[in-house]
Structure formats: C-alpha cells, structure tokens
Task: structure prediction
Amino acid sequence: MTAAVSTPFDFAAYLEASRLRVEAALDGALGPERPESLREAMRYSLLAGGKRLRPILCLAACELAGGNSELALPTAVALEMVHTMSLIHDDLPAMDNDDLRRGRPTNHKVFGDAIAILAGDALLTRAFEMVALRSPSVPAAQLLAVVGELSLASGAPGLVGGQVVDLECEGKDVDLETLEYIHLHKTGALLRACVLCGALIAGAPEALLEALSTYARGIGLAFQILDDILDVTASSEVLGKTAGKDLTADKTTYPKLLGLEESRLRAEALVIQAKAALAPWAERATPLLALADYITQRDR
Ligand code: GRG
Result:
C-alpha cells in the first residue's frame, strides 16, 4: 500500500498564475471607450501592473467558500478598478500630489488633471457595471449583495471617509486609534470587500462571512503597517512610487508612532490573528493563509 503524498503548495506559482489570469480579465474588461483620450487614460493606469492583490483575494475567497472563481472574475476586476481609480485620485495635486505610481508617471502627469479625474470616474462606474451587467450566471440576489459591499467600501463608510480623515490629519499629531481608523477605512475596507464579495458569489454562510471579515481586518492593518515600513525602508525604484513620501507630507505612520521593530511585530501579530479566524476552514484556506503571510513578507 502506498501512502498518500500531498504536494506542497507552491505560493509563488499560485500568485503568478492568479496575476496572469487577472491581467487577462482586466484587459478584456475595457472596451472601445470613446473618446480615445479617455480610453488611453483608463488603460494606462489599469494595465500598469501592480500586485493585483485585491482581485486575487476575491478569487481565493470564492474558492474557499466552495465557489467557481470564474464566476467571481468580473467582480475581481471591479475591485481592481475601484483600487486603481483610488490611486489615480490619490495622486492628484489636490490630494497626495505624486509623480510616480506603479513605476511610471502618474495619470495626471501624462493626461492632465481633468482627464485623470474623469478616467477615475469612468473606472469607478465601470466597476459597478462589471458586477451588475457583466456577471453572467451569478444570481441577482448575490450580485445585489456584492454591489452593496462595493458601495460601502468605496464611499464615505470606506475609502472616501478614510481619505478625508487622512487629509485632515496631515501635519497634526495623530494617536494610534485615529491612525487605525484611517487605515481600516482607507485600506482595510476594500480588502474586506474583496474577500466578502468573493465569498458572497459562492453563497457563503454567515459564519464564513464573519470569519473573512475578521481575517480582512487583520490583513488590512498589517498591509498598511508594511506600506508605512516600506515607505521608509525601500527605494522608489523597487516600490514603483515615491519612497519617503509620508515624512515629506508630515503624515503619522506606524513606524513614527511605534518604531520600525515594534511595527513589524504588530503586523506579524495581526497576520497570526487573521489566519486564526480561518482555522475552521483550514483545509481550503491555504491560498488565503499564504496571502496573509505574503503581506508581511513583501518587499514592495
Ligand atoms: C473610491 C470613490 C473612491 C474615491 C477614492 C483617493 C481616495 C478616494 C482614497 C485613497 C485610497 C488609497 C490610495 C489608499 C491607499 C491604499 C494602498 C496602501 C495602496 C497601495 O496598494 P498596493 O500596494 O498597490 O496593493 P498596487 O500598485 O500593487 O496595486
């Protein structure tokens, strides 16, 4: 009798295969927009690379919940569209005023502020179109739930609210509680929507949705702590965006409040908590567990 041999999970291969799958779906999601200037500006930022972590989280959560991730692909694309539009708007002179994003000049540097704003608007609205009109074979009730999560994560209760508090706190002393509020909204809300939307498409039960929410809170904060750490430890070339920006903009960050070492420890503890939430589903959770680890181990 031969013993069953389980193949070890090859995370690097999984990440690369998922990334390529997402890239192809993103490319196919932008149609022949008119006018051409708008099409170019939308494609410029959406197809500029990036880790594609958000759509990958969505697909992984769908599979964890026992769903067919092919059905979640339009929603995964929608989540990347919301993320990309938030980067375009975040880089504008009225916000973070940045020149470099994903290794190339920011959208407004190439197309001008007005087109950058409108390209962001078109990506945001296309995101909702992807879910509502381009998700065949997903029951309407599930799509409605996805639209709800996407709205909450994007708007005042999520990204927009977090960004406003972030802008209002520039140059001020910020305590840990406020910093956490900013990041749970600015960064965490969309990561939460990613796993919830993937699971909703698979018809996940309430207990799993709650566990995924806890998981997302942990990885969301850990993700941002790493973002703050990399801002001081990595180069602009590696990051593909301007390093040292937080210091220049006089922003409060985790390293500023806690120091680098303590920030790292906090991120690791958050990832442990996040992974623990998925323990009852451990058998199918391997990709989400590995993605949580990746968040604290990444170099960009
Ligand atoms: C969504 C309606 C709407 C408006 C946007 C500008 C804004 C409101 C919010 C800012 C949100 C923001 C830029 C948060 C920062 C999140 C973050 C850490 C981004 C970096 O994400 P990565 O590292 O980037 O995943 P890549 O390029 O790899 O995708």
Observations:
- The mean pLDDT is 95.
